[in-house]
Write a structure and sequence with these properties.
- The protein is mainly beta and about 300 residues long.
- The chain has 2 helices and 15 strands.
- The protein has one domain: Porin.
Length: about 300
């Protein structure tokens, strides 16, 4: 049992005329209090986003962005409090890019169809300055988005691809990610959202014929709002880590996860959430023989509560 302080976030945004905008999302935390916002270097501060945008007079108006930004892929937000569920899906935790540093183009063809295209350092958003370890080719990605429905009840579909030479110092072995996300409103009280993803990281330095790392999975999220203050949700997720190199979960396994939760809107900007989660791990025969004495399944249970306040 623990109490966790996930983060304190300060978002700063400023417009200069009609065409220039800057934004910084500053995340503060304390690692020893369970903050997930520490960087790889151990800092208790994380620059979630920091960018400048410029509007280009082209068609309906194109937005050009430079800096660090949330990856335009998938259904779940990087900010936990903005999601329906308390916990992140295993698709988000192990296969999806989260934040990227580079340049992005965004263009809305109309109110229904939009397109994002980006070129970034790499999908892990980690740079290497050691001679011979950096890739000469950046990573890249795109997303096609479809939106329809009334204000506050928009239905969305997103189709994304991301890839590039994610192996430092090697430009020939590429990573490929395909992702489909959706969120639909059914009537006034029901929502159905979900995501499906396939990822492949082509290995380097192994003998000829060594299999590449592959991961695939998805989740389905059902939401029900019986009133303006209460909402209920159920999520089922699946992840198959076909993984000879330890790139994702570190084990060759399949994971089924089940989450049941509720949210209570205390006031504008303040919400309390509760969740029970069960993860069922099914290990490959080789993994079970090496780690669990032949036992090919394991269960994980968790109960969590979250309080978030935005103002």
């Amino acid at each position: 049992f623990n109490f966790y302080l996930d983060q304190v976030e300060l978002d700063i945004q400023k417009s200069f005329g009609e065409n220039i905008r800057i934004r910084a999302d500053l995340d503060f935390g304390r690692f020893l209090s369970g903050s997930g916002r520490n960087t790889q270097a151990g800092s208790n501060f994380n620059l979630e986003q920091g960018y400048v945008t410029a509007n280009i007079a082209m068609g309906n108006g194109m937005e050009l962005l430079f800096g660090r930004f949330n990856a335009p892929i998938g259904l779940e937000s990087v900010d936990r409090a903005d999601n329906t569920a308390v916990s992140f899906s295993n698709v988000y935790r192990y296969l999806r890019p989260h934040n990227l540093t580079g340049v992005k183009l965004y263009y809305a063809f109309n109110a229904t169809f939009d397109w994002s295209l980006y070129v970034v350092n790499n999908l892990a958003d980690v740079i290497s300055t050691t001679v011979g370890t950096d890739s000469a080719i950046p990573s890249y990605g795109t997303r096609f988005g479809f939106t329809w429905g009334g204000e506050g009840r928009e239905n969305t579909i997103g189709l994304s691809y991301a890839g590039g030479p994610e192996q430092f110092g090697n430009n020939a072995h590429l990573t490929h990610i395909l992702d489909l996300d959706f969120n639909f409103h059914i009537g006034e009280k029901i929502t159905i959202g979900g995501e499906g993803i396939y990822r492949q990281d082509n290995v380097t330095g192994a003998f000829a014929g060594f299999p590449n790392s592959k991961g695939l999975g998805g989740f389905l999220l059902l939401g029900f709002a019986p009133s303006d203050t209460w909402n209920l949700y159920f999520r089922y997720g699946y992840l198959h880590d076909i993984n000879p190199t330890g790139a994702y979960t570190g084990l060759d396994q399949q994971i089924h996860d089940f989450s049941l939760g509720a949210g209570y809107q205390i006031t504008d900007g303040a919400q309390l959430k509760f969740e029970y989660r069960l993860d069922l791990h099914n290990y490959s025969a080789a993994t079970a023989a090496a780690l669990t004495g032949g036992d090919r399944s394991a269960l994980q249970n968790a109960i969590a509560a979250e309080f978030a306040y935005n103002f």
